[in-house]
Amino acid sequence: MGDRFAAPGQRLWGIYRLDLAAAWPHLWLLAADGTRAELHAARVRFGAAARLCAWGAGYLVMGVWWWPAALVGITAVAAGLRRGRAAADAFAELTEALADLHVRDLAATLGIDSPSGIDRTLGERLSRALRKHG
Question: Which residues in the chain come in under a pLDDT of 50?
Answer without folding.
Answer: none
